[in-house]
Amino acid sequence: MVSNYSASGISSPEGITTGPDGALWFANEGSNSIGRITTAGVVSLYNANGWNPEAITVGPDGALWFTEVVSNQIGRITTAGVVSLYRGVGISDPEGITTGPDGALWFTDWGNGSIGRITTSGVVSNYTGAGVSFPEGITTGPDGALWFTNFYGNSIGRITTAGVVSNTTGTGIRSPAWIAAVPGQGLWFTNYGDNSIGQVSP
Question: Residue 106 above 90 pLDDT?
């Protein structure tokens, strides 16, 4: 059974995650805000102080972290609605974001063709080179590495917390967009290029 919730201000919602407060938090791209909705359907909106929030995840510090594609920013919002923003070298058209096993946030940096890492204090590192091509989605894998999609590279990438990159290519991977880890079932991803769902083992 499907239920729908709508409210003034919900516009082109993108990423969504379960917050530490038991509500759902989402990136509200169309109104440049971060939304919160309870399981009873009560909606709150917070100004993201930027443009086009895309993906959102719970950080290791108990806040929600999100990407802002057009503003070239990584954002942080507490469950009380207080927003902090990080930008500068190493953040350009960020797309996906996830909490890594090392206690930092890892994100796909589409504009720089890199995988980015940001600490909870805002220190950014970037990993570029072979194996990273217009990355979009990213998740923490069951093997303790970060797995990401290379949209134009038609591959699934893997990067260790030390920055070592490897790739999986071949039939069944075509313009992969978003990716998620499933316990005991490897990594599942969306194939934007051929309207299919793919799966790869670690």
Answer: yes
